[in-house]
Amino acid sequence: MSPASTAPVYDRQILEFERPVVELERKIQELKQISTASIDFGDEIRRLEKKARRLQVEIFAELSPWQKVQLSRHPLRPYLLDYVPVLFDDFLELHGDRAFADDASIVGGLARFGAREVLVLGHQKGRNTRENVHRNFGMSRPEGYRKALRLMHLAARFGRPILTFIDTPGAYPGLGAEERGQAEAIAKNLEVMAGLPVPIVATVIGEGGSGGALALGVGDRVLMLEYAIYSVISPEGCASILWKDQSKVATAAEELKLTAPDLVRLGICDEVVPEGEGGAHRDLEGTARNLRATLDRQLDLLVGLAPSELTDRRYRKLRAIGVCEERAVS
Fold it and tell me: How far is it, in rounded angstroms, from Cα 195 to Cα 213?
């Protein structure tokens, strides 16, 4: 069941551009409640439902990069633990980095994906203040990345494909995290993931923020949900640095090229996974169905490859990102 269908929708959870559709849906719900055999609003309900669907398609066909940023952060957007029960069977969560602590902002465990045994690994945010404190708002500390590293080594030892799910504003910038080696922990993950002998498919399901996202993002395939974002910095941070003006966040979102279609065009992301109608927060089942089919297809292409071929392809994929120009020096 979608998070949107299990939680009450408050005005603060409605994005301004989706408000016309939500208001129509509320009117439809009111008519359904008062409709009786003697007073039948069936024709009006069907007319409004058709209008709502058409309006939704029109709105979502014209979304700006900043509006997609807002969707990627929607408070009802599904997180990793919302996808786990609809994508996987027999999920067994594993805890701790065996060195310092268990960072709840990263969730990992063994599961079955169809007939395959896989490792599931990803960021996890919270739905309310208490959960967000427990999950540190999805911002991981070094022990979270070291837990992820431990589990990836475990997957490699038993030959299990690794499926990572990225959804973080970025790595936690606190003093304790820096003291415990935040940069080293992220760098170590990049190094190890580049050489793991098992297939890795990384999927950005919400926010892909900076090194905190990249630490789980070195894969044979990098997928993005339709309204996910992936960037070296947030639009707010970019606007603050470049223009020193928070009113420039929409401009920053445009210039950062952080949307899924932009990143496919730039060769950073391999495929965009369509979300359900109105976004993943309104249709978890449809989004999960599309994601399941895409993950299954990508694994079919990867599981038969020899470890040496996997790592060689991964290396060439990473080296091909970006543009380098050589100029003769006179």
Answer: 18
Q: Exposure of 95 by Cβ count < 10 A (0-12 exposed, 13-18 middle, 19+ buried)?
A: middle
d(CA 108, CA 119): 7
Strands, E, within 85-138: which ranges? 89-94, 106-113, 116-123
CATH number of 69-319: 3.90.226.10
In order along its 330 residues, the chain shows pLDDT tens digits of: 455 445 555 565 888 888 888 888 888 888 888 777 667 777 788 888 888 888 888 888 889 999 999 999 999 999 999 999 999 999 999 999 999 999 999 999 999 999 999 999 999 999 999 999 999 999 999 999 999 999 999 999 999 999 999 999 999 999 999 999 999 999 999 999 999 999 999 999 999 999 999 999 999 999 999 999 999 999 999 999 999 999 999 999 999 999 999 999 999 999 999 999 889 998 999 999 999 999 999 999 999 999 999 999 999 999 888 877 777 776
Q: Which residues pair with 164 in a beta bridge?
A: 121, 202
Rounded CA-CA distance 270/108 in Å is 24
Domain regions of the chain by residue span: 14-62, 69-319
